[in-house]
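Can anyone check this?
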Amino acid sequence: MISVVVPAKNEAGRAVTVLQNLGTLPIDHIIFISNGCKDATMYEVLQMRLPKLQIIYFHDCLGIDIPRAIGAKVALSLGSDVVAFVDGDMVGTFNENLMELVDGVLLKHLDMALTNCYPSPPRHIERYNPTFQWRMNLNKELGLEKKIGLATPAHGPHAVSRRFLETLPITELAIPPVSLALARKNKLKIDVATTIPHYRLGSSIKGQLHTNKIIDTIVGDCLEGMATFRDQPRNRQWQNKTYIGYHSERRFDILEHFFNTK
């Protein structure tokens, strides 16, 4: 059984495109997580009447990546063998790539199938984005840099196996680089299964403030991942700076409540 988790926060006009694309695929469930949407997203999604669609609605905003963990929990409870993740703003056309991720799990027996979003080295201006340095630092720490390069579950569609979900605490999916570190620590099989250049994802552009907060979020997440892999107390600090970004808005309280009541 194949499920795709689609988290979305205020993606009116975009989430429906993502769901329409997914609706044509040979998958069993599309699990849409409404992440505190205050625009017309829910109205548009409810009009679709997609038979594969399961809608999980949260009035409060869950914060970044928390919906992935919730969707994975639902997918596992439905009996899924593969769970893929596609953000609700990714309106690009990459259905074939998504099936390559699924095949990576089903045919190549990967436990985490990742997307290479940078088949060419990042452009000059992008090289100064600290997320690239820290993504590579984490992958080197895990001994995966030669295999997966810059790939990370924090960027681009990816898929995980039932074994992944039964081995790790599913709540750890709320911090994607930590889930990568734990998968490696548990000797699960990790590799790149497809290539989608970043521009083809079709992600929405949200401005410089958002970009800066995303950078701090991912750097902090990678630092947490490295600490987790080393069996050290988790921290998000490097050289007297603590990288918080959107981490402070992650509603772990709602996540715990959801897991404890299901």
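Reply from J.R.: I decoded it. The two ends are 20 Å apart (CA to CA).
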